Amino acid sequence: MNNLEEYGIVLPLTELAYQTANQFAAEQVSGDKAERVRLNTLAVWLVRDYLDLMGIPTNITEGDSWNPIMRMSADVADLEVTGVGYLECISCQTPAPSYAVPPEVTRDRLGYVVVQIDDSLREGTILGFTDKVQNGIISQLQSWDSLLVHLDRLKSRVTVEETIVNLSQWLEGIVTRGWETTRELFLGSENNLAFSFRSAETEIDNTLRLGKRLDLGEELGSLILLLEVRETESSEKIITLQLYPVETDRLPEQIQLQILDDSDTVLATAISTDSDNYLQLQIHGAPGERFRVEILAGSNALSEDFII
């Protein structure tokens, strides 16, 4: 594990946090369980305070950790991030090479925040964050600020959930609003190379090509994301993605096009150089599977969610 305790963020624990943790601990039937509940409660409170400072709304009373029956019967330290889901707060008093995650919280969590509680119980340190647990063990932490990036990505995902693009419907003639034919998209574009390339392609049965114009701001301009869906005899879908510039015949450097699955694991990535006039990725998928396309350009990030 990286030595992240040197770079953790330290926050004070309020008197109310201290009193609440002691109250919850006093409800337990054994000393060991009481100490576990006390540390869990303080860890949840400290993560709540940190997210509050960052302007991220939470609801501390909605988690199992605030439910007296769940506190007594399970080892839980969850915190609801409003409108997104639940984080698990893993408490410790000494940084360690790895951290055990209770079996009951290895699923249905946005991620895991490791919090060191000071011996005085008056302050804590957020040591780091991860969204990966293997065999019930956290063996590597990302820096604490990666939590903010992760939550921002998940919030964006929730926002677009209602307009997730259904590719099977495309082949039935039901096209998602905002997606257009390649001819409509490139009409008036200075990128004649891209338009010629797409127009010259031979049409294939059970194939549909549509695109969407994306605005990356004044400095980077606009890009066009093209998506081709082809259905095979086995009903598997072959999905090809291409990313083109609009105002020029070359992409800006370091534009990143990537495909992620529904657990945010990266399946494929392409990064532009100064000589690329387009980027391309291809995946195969079965009906019902979900994936996300992300375009990263400096501080700009755009994403689209799809279901096959």
Describe the fold and architecture:
This protein folds into two domains: 4-151, no CATH class; 164-307, Immunoglobulins (Immunoglobulin-like), CATH 2.60.40. Helix content is 24%, strand content 33%. It has helices at residues 15-26, 31-53, 68-73, 146-160, 167-171, 182-186, 192-199; strands at 9-12, 58-59, 78-81, 85-92, 99-100, 111-117, 123-130, 137-138, 165-166, 207-215, 222-231, 237-245, 256-261, 266-271, 279-285, 290-297, 300-307. The strands form four sheets. Strands 1-7-6-4-3-2 form a six-stranded mixed sheet, with helices on one face. A five-stranded mixed sheet has the order 9-17-16-13-14. The longest helix is centred in the N-terminal third of the chain and has 23 residues, at 31-53. The two termini are 38 Å apart. The model is unreliable at 1-5 and 192-203 (pLDDT under 50).
